[in-house]
Amino acid sequence: MFMMTRVGETRSMNDQTRRTAINLADYEDLAKQVLPRDLWEHMSGGAADEITLRENVAAFRRIKVVPRVLHDVTHRDLSTQILGQPVSVPVLIAPVSCPARYHSDGELAAARAAAKAGTIFIASTGTCFSVEEIAKTSAAMALTGCSRISEIGRSLISGNK
């Protein structure tokens, strides 16, 4: 995996390094190593005073996975419905403001990945692409920040950013 820095130099993460990452904290550490500082701070931080960020981290720490051993797992089905949309797994791709800062295809790549995985891509109101461009990926999509149709929401939906 190669990441472009702002000045065009690349920093790489080799296959062996990626194979040693076994959890999200490991991948977070790897991202910190390869991303330019301003992008890392943008990606790893939260809005305003970061209360929601801290609460989300605390909530995930309270979740305990209890392995179920000696169960037949020949036929597994993780599919469910979210927002009335069938999904293959109960995992969504969360909104990030302007992912094109991290990869040239940004939201388009993330939406394609969601479609391929059979799940929902959630577009940020800080998207770098129009809603129509993202929708062409055929992914199920939700738009954040527009609980009521406001002028911003209308302009995003109509492509007049």
Quick structural summary:
With about 160 residues, the protein is an alpha+beta fold.
Helix-strand string? EEHHHHEEHEHEH
Gyration radius (Cα, Å) is 18 Å
Please provide the count of β strands. 6
Q: Ends: how far apart?
A: 32 Å
Taken as a percent bin, the fraction of beta residues is 5-15%
Helix/strand structural class: alpha+beta
Overall pLDDT? 79
**Morphology call:** globular
Structure commentary:
- With 161 residues, this protein is α+β, with helices and mostly antiparallel strands.
- The chain folds into 2 domains: 1-66, no CATH class; 71-161, no CATH class.
- Helix content is 39%, strand content 12%.
- The chain has 7 helices and 6 strands, in the order ββααααββαβαβα.
- The protein has helices at 15-20, 24-34, 37-44, 51-62, 106-117, 131-135, 151-158, and strands at 2-4, 10-12, 80-82, 85-87, 120-123, 140-143.
- Strands 1-2 form a two-stranded antiparallel ribbon. The protein has a two-stranded antiparallel sheet with strand order 3-4.
- Strand 5 (120-123), helix 6 and strand 6 form a beta-alpha-beta unit.
- It is globular, with a radius of gyration of 18 Å.
- Mean pLDDT is 79; it is low at 1-10 and 146-150.
